[in-house]
């Protein structure tokens, strides 16, 4: 057989960038992708499509496809097995009237010269059997559909519960912006795709696969030579289709189609999310261009796959279409062997009729089987993405948790990289100690590692080298509950639940009384907000309710921290809310919160931390200097530069303010 080359001179139009890259690589023999071994559309190419999806080599080997679906169904796997078994029974029932009617015809043919000699009781039994089979078909399909739907919703439930459980156990560092989008997609779209497949397609696939098998088994029993004439074209169709899809180009166009589909999905979400920013900067046209380019690339890859698959599909259809022709040839070959009496001829005619009838009906389930294979490959990809989350390592809980001894925080020789131990270091050999009850400022240029320090104290990530101690104990030896009870954190961007104001504050301590919630609201200086809202603490926040300003939201977060009353507090200073009154209130709330606690303030305005016991200056992941303000001004050039820059900014603010008032 002729070897298939990837370069197609006949192809005058190149549809997409991915396609061009493939042909360019193909022209350079050593780098032809070795993906040719993957099975037709069975998900083998999915991994090629997303090599950067973070599939770490340490992941446990999981089952795939249906076997994995069964595993995910957990205790409800019986339902799934039942649904499939009933679908198979239904296809047997669907086929049996053909055979029963064939036997009836056979009776008539055998007794055509004396119809009175027909055993009418036997005929009636055959007819009743055909009717019963029709009834069994209806009932089995109904029950199979019911079971499939029940199984589907159970799988949906089980998978979502497993995912939620997992998300509660992974380190908080897992939830980067990119991951959040991925997780959202897996939790909704991917889980629902599985539900849809199990509820609607699994039984179809089972009957599409079993109907031809049942039919062929029966036909083999009737006449194996004619049965072979029906089977050979179907087998040929599968082989032709499989061979076409399994070439490197087949795998490449499938992979390109899937990858560009995912890119487009991301661009679409980004485009819609960022629309307000795009509009403000009047960039809609250029932003749209990227969206358009991604859409074009996707369409190009679909065209490529369509163009490429067309010949394979065509050959497959031709093979299936040749079925009747094969049967005809087989009939002509078998005919001379039939005995030359009228009865044998008549019987042969009814057999041929049966084969033509059944053969014609077999095409539909065979084609359906191929469609279901494609659907199944989409489901495989969804299951794989779910497994990627389920396989993410849990935050390691200590076997014997220890108790913190005091409210100190200590870093000793801590190094950390977001990209694993060998990546660029976000923190490089950082050592410092925050004694119990002290107030410390954390300053430095953007990207210096300030937020990373906060993330390590909260154990969003574990240090690659050195140790982070809270209360004198390595954070890896504290239970996650104890760590969370000991350290509070106020983020720069506060997250509010779409719930009442009270519920939002109560997140700090579910057991607090309403009076305690009110006291926390007062301490965090949000009593003015409570008084202003129509239903006070019971006002709903967020969609369908009232929206709070950024500064107000941050004060709600501070109220949570008051209610939680943890001995260590990490604050990320808000800079975005320049409104003087709001800022004054936030500072006042910060000051109250800091009493009797160990406080680390990530400060963007040096004024905030000038009075702190000590200031840590971070620069490019290293602790550049530490000490009180006055000492730092004397000994740290970087700190002096920061102070000067701050003074210039304040002067500029004041000048701008004067301009404003004059204008
Ligand atoms: N999730 C992340 N994944 C990969 N790299 C990150 C991540 N977060 C931060 N980094 C990198 O780590 C380094 C330190 O970042 P970090 O956020 O700690 O700086 P920062 O001092 O808080 O800066 P800023 O003042 O701008 O908030 C930077 O080089 C940054 O690009
Ligand atoms: Mg930061």
Write the layout of secondary structure elements.
Blueprint: H1 17-27, H2 46-49, H3 65-73, H4 77-110, H5 120-169, H6 177-222, H7 224-245, H8 248-273, H9 275-280, H10 284-321, H11 323-334, H12 342-390, E1 409-416, E2 427-434, E3 439-443, H13 450-457, E4 465-470, E5 473-474, H14 480-486, E6 487-490, H15 501-506, H16 514-523, H17 527-532, H18 550-564, E7 568-572, H19 580-594, E8 598-602, H20 606-609, E9 614-619, E10 622-627, H21 629-635, H22 637-662
Parallel strand pairs: 3-8, 3-9, 6-7, 7-8
Antiparallel strand pairs: 1-2, 1-4, 4-5, 9-10
Helix pairs in contact: 3-12, 4-5, 4-6, 4-12, 5-6, 6-7, 6-12, 7-10, 7-11, 7-12, 8-10, 11-12, 16-18, 18-19, 21-22
The structure holds adenosine-5'-triphosphate and magnesium ion (MG).
Residues 176, 418, 426, 444, 446-452 line the site of adenosine-5'-triphosphate (ATP).
């Amino acid at each position: 057989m002729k070897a298939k080359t990837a370069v197609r001179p006949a192809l005058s139009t190149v549809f997409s960038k991915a396609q061009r890259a493939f042909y360019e690589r193909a022209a350079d023999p050593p780098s032809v992708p070795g993906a040719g071994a993957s099975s037709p559309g069975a998900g083998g190419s999915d991994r090629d499509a997303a090599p950067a999806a973070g599939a770490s080599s340490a992941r446990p080997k999981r089952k795939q496809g249906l076997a994995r679906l069964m595993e995910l169904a957990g205790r409800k796997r019986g339902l799934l097995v039942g649904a499939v078994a009933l679908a198979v029974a239904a296809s047997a029932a669907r086929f049996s009237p053909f055979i029963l009617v064939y036997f009836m015809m056979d009776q008539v043919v055998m007794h055509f010269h004396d119809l009175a000699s027909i055993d009418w009781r036997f005929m009636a039994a055959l007819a009743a059997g055909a009717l019963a089979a029709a009834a069994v078909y209806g009932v089995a399909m109904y029950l199979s559909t019911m079971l499939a739907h029940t199984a589907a919703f159970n799988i949906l439930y089980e998978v979502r519960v497993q995912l939620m459980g997992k998300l509660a156990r992974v380190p908080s560092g897992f939830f980067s912006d990119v991951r959040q989008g991925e997780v959202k997609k897996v939790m909704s779209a991917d889980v629902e795709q599985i539900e849809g497949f199990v509820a609607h397609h699994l039984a179809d696939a089972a009957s599409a696969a079993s109907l031809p098998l049942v039919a062929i088994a029966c036909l083999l029993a009737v006449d194996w030579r004619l049965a072979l004439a029906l089977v050979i074209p179907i087998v040929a169709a599968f082989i032709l289709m499989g061979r076409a899809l399994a070439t490197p180009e087949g795998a490449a166009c499938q992979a390109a189609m899937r990858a560009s589909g995912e890119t487009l999905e991301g661009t679409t979400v980004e485009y819609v999310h960022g629309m307000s920013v795009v509009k403000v900067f009047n960039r809609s046209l250029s932003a749209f261009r990227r969206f358009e380019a991604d859409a074009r690339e996707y369409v190009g890859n679909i065209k490529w796959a369509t163009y490429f698959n067309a010949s394979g599909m065509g050959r497959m259809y031709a093979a299936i279409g040749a079925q009747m022709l094969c049967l005809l040839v087989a009939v002509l070959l078998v005919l001379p062997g039939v005995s030359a009496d009228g009865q044998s001829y008549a019987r042969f005619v009814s057999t041929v009729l049966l084969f033509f009838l059944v053969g014609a009906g077999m095409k539909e389930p065979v084609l359906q089987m191929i469609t279901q294979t494609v659907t199944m490959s989409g489901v495989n990809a969804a299951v794989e993405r779910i497994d990627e989350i389920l396989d993410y390592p849990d935050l390691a809980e200590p076997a014997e948790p220890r108790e913190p001894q005091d409210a100190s925080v200590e870093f000793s020789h801590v190094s950390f990289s977001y990209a694993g131990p060998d990546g660029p270091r976000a923190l490089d050999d950082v050592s410092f100690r925050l004694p119990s009850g002290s107030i410390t400022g954390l300053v430095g240029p953007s990207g210096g590692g300030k937020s990373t320090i906060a993330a390590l104290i909260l154990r969003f990530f574990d240090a690659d080298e050195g140790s982070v101690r809270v209360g004198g104990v390595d954070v890896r030896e504290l239970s996650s509950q104890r760590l969370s009870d000991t350290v509070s954190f106020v983020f720069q961007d506060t997250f509010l639940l779409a719930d009442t104001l009270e519920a939002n504050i109560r997140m700090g301590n579910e057991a607090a009384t309403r009076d305690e919630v009110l006291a926390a609201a007062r301490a965090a200086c949000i009593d003015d907000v409570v008084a202003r809202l129509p239903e006070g603490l019971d006002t709903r926040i967020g969609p369908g309710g009232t929206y709070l300003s950024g500064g107000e939201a941050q004060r709600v977060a501070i109220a949570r921290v008051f209610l939680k009353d943890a001995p260590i507090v990490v604050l990320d200073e808000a800079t975005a809310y320049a409104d003087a009154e709001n800022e004054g209130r936030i500072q006042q709330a910060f000051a109250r919160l800091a009493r009797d606690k160990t406080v680390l303030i990530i400060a963007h305005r040096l004024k905030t931390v000038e009075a702190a016991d000590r200031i840590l200056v971070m620069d490019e992941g290293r602790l550049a200097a530490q000490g009180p303000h006055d000492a730092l001004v004397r000994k740290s050039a970087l700190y002096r530069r920061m102070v000067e820059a701050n003074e210039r900014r304040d002067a500029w603010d004041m000048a701008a303010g004067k301009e404003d008032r004059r204008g």
